[in-house]
Amino acid sequence: MSWLSSDFPNDGLVLQADDQSTATVYYSSASTVPTADRPAISVVYTPPTAPSAPPNATVTPGDGGAVLTWSPPIDSGYLYAAGDDITYTVKALDPSGQVAQQATTGELHAVITGLTDGTAYTFAVSASNTAGSGPSTTTVAATPQAVSGGTSQYVQAISQFLNAKDQLQESVTASSSTMAAQYSSFASFSTELSYGADTDTAVAALEQANSEQDAQDATTLTNTLVVHPSGSSTTEVFTTADETFTTVDTSSGTSVSTPGESTDNDEFFFNVSGTPLITGFVDAAAALDPVTEYTNQTATAPSAQESASDGTPEWALDSGGHAVLAPGYVDPGSGGSNGDPAVASWALSHYKISYNGFGDDCTDFVSRVLFYGGSFPKKYNAAGFRGKHPSTSDDRYWFIQDLLGRSWSHSWSVAKDLYQFEKKQYADFVSPHYVASGDIVWVNWTGTSSAGISHAAVITKVSGSNIYVTQHSHTRINEPIWKVKDALSWQGANPHLHLWAAQPTEL
Questions:
Q1: Beta-carbon neighbour count of residue 51 at 10 Å?
Q2: Sign of CA dihedral 160, 166, 171, 176
Q3: Of 116, 332, 444, 471, which residue has the fewest beta carbons closer than 10 angstroms?
Q4: d(CA 283, CA 371)
C-alpha cells in the first residue's frame, strides 16, 4: 500500500511486506511470541527517478530540418505535483556526433530547423523531470532535402493568409474580395480565405456591438518547416503562428486598451500542381501527437453527477451579442464575485505552459491555475491514487498525480465535472454584470444544459461590460470572447451559446 502526506512531499514512499511468506494472523503481541515469529513490515523509501526513454520516436525530414514525434515514457519516475513535470529535449546530431540543433518542449512532437540539406543526421529524444534527465531514445536517422522551388513561396503565402484574416477582424467593412491588390500571394490563399471570411468579419461585428475594436492585429511565423514527401502532390508546412493584437474597449465610457496574444502550432497543406494553393490547415499537435489515454479527456469523459438544469445563473447572448441572463433566471444583484487576483496573475504568466499530455487541455489548464495560482489544495479519497477508481468520476474530488500509474479526477480535466465540483464547493456563481478577474467561466456551445458544458477558461480582465479570457485549446491570453474564431467558439456558437461563471471556492 502507499500513502501521501500533506501536498505530497514524500514522493515515492511505499509500504511493503519484507518477504513473500504466507501471511499469518496474530491476535496478540505478547512477549512470549519469539521475535523471529512476530509480524514485521519494512518501510522502503523509493526515491524519485528520472523518466525512462520516450518510446516510438519517428522522424520526417523537410527542407532544412525535420519533424519528430514520440510517445510518453512508460515510467515517469516521479510523482507530479500537478502533472506537468516532464519536458523533452530533442537533439539533432551531425555525422561527427556533435549536436547541430536541439529543442526543448512539453509536447510530444518537435519541429527542428536550421539543418543542412543533404546531410544525414541522427535524432535522439530524452525526457526530464525534477529528479533529472533520463536516457535518450534509440536514435533515428533522416536527411533533410530541399523543396523544389524553395520554401519562401509557402512561408509568404501562409504569412499573408493569416494577416489577411487579421485584417478582416479589424473592420466590419473589410472584404476578402478587395484584398487581391494588397497581397502578392493572394492567388495561393484566396479560396481558403473566402471560406472563413464570414466568421472573421463576424468577429469585427460582435466586437463593435460590444463597444470593442480589434486593432494593431498582426501575425508572425517562427520555426517554420516545409516538407514535401517524395512523389506526393501535397506539400506540408509546420509553423508557429503568433498573433498579437490590441482590443480598444469603450464600454465603460472611456477608452481602455488591452494587449492580447494567441499562439498556434499549425500544419498547412498545399496542392502543388501548378501555383501552390492552401487547401487547409489543422492544429499540429492534433495531427502529430500520438493518441493516448489522456487525449481529449476534457470533452469526452463521463460525469457521475450531471444535471440538466441546476439553477445557477446562466448566461445567454442577445441579438446584439451582449451577454445577458438567460430567460427565467433572476439577477442575483450586487455583491457578486470578488475575483481572485492570484488566479488571474498565474494564468497570465503561464498561459504558454505545455498541454500536460492532454489533447484538449482547457480544463486541465484551469485546474493548474487554481492549484498553483490560487493555492487550492487537491481533494481526494484514500482509494483514488492508483489508476482508474470510482473517485476519479466522483465530482467531490479534484486531483491529478502519478503514483505507480497516472491518475486524475474528471473534475481536474473535464469542464462539466469541474463545474459540478465547484457547485459542491458552494462557489459563488454570478450574473454577467458581476464577474471579476480570476473567476472561471464555463461554456456550452450548443444548448442550455450545464450537462453539455465542454469548455472552461479563466477570466483575466473585466473592462466595462466586457470580459477577457486566458485559456488553452487553443493558447490565448487576454482575448475578448468575441475574437475566438474556431468552429466551436464564443462568437461562432451564437445564438446557441450559454455560459456560467463563478468565483472558485474550495472548502
A1: 25
A2: positive
A3: 116
A4: 27
Which has the closest alpha carbon to 183: 166, 160, 155? Answer: 160
Residue-averaged pLDDT of the chain: 82
Cα separation, 430 vs 315, in Å, equals 9
Question: What would the pLDDT profile of 356-371 be if each residue is shown by its tens digit?
Answer: 878 788 999 999 999 9
In this structure, the number of other CB atoms found within 10 A of the CB of residue 238 comes to: 24
Residue 453: φ, ψ to 5°: -60, 130
- State which H helix or E strand residue 342 sits in: helix 341-349
Q: Are 401 and 356 in contact (CB under 8 A)?
A: no
Q: Which residues contact 179 (CB under 8 A, 6 or more apart)?
A: 164, 167, 186, 193
What is the end-to-end Cα distance of the chain in Å, rounded?
Answer: 28
Is residue 288 within 8 A of residue 67, CB to CB? The reply is: yes
At 126, list the grid cell. 530524452
Per the listing, cell 479527456 goes with 297
Q: Is 410 helix (H, G, I), strand (E, B) or coil?
A: helix
Q: Provide the 10 A C-beta neighbour count for residue 195.
A: 10
Give the count of beta carbons closer than 10 Å to the beta carbon of residue 132. 12
Say if residue 474 is preceded by a cis peptide, omega within 30 of 0. yes
Give the orientation angle of helix 152-170 with respect to helix 186-209, to 10 degrees: 20
pLDDT of residue 312: 81
Residue type, 505: T
> Residue 499: exposed, middle, or buried by beta-carbon count in 10 A (0-12, 13-18, 19+)?
buried
Residue 487: the pLDDT is: 41
C-alpha–C-alpha distance, residues 340 and 473, integer Å: 22
Residue-wise burial string across 408-446, b where 16 or more C-beta atoms lie within 10 A, e elsewhere: bbbbbbbbbbbbbbbbbbebbbbbbebbbbbbbbbbbbe
Q: What is the DSSP letter of 396?
A: T
**CA torsion through residues 348, 155, 223, 106, sign:** positive
CA–CA distance, 134 with 131 (Å, rounded to integer): 9
Q: Within a 13 Å sphere around the CA of 104, how many CA atoms are in the beta-carbon half?
A: 7
Residue 465 has pLDDT above 60, yes or no: yes
Residue 157's nearest CA partner among 238, 278, 273 is 278
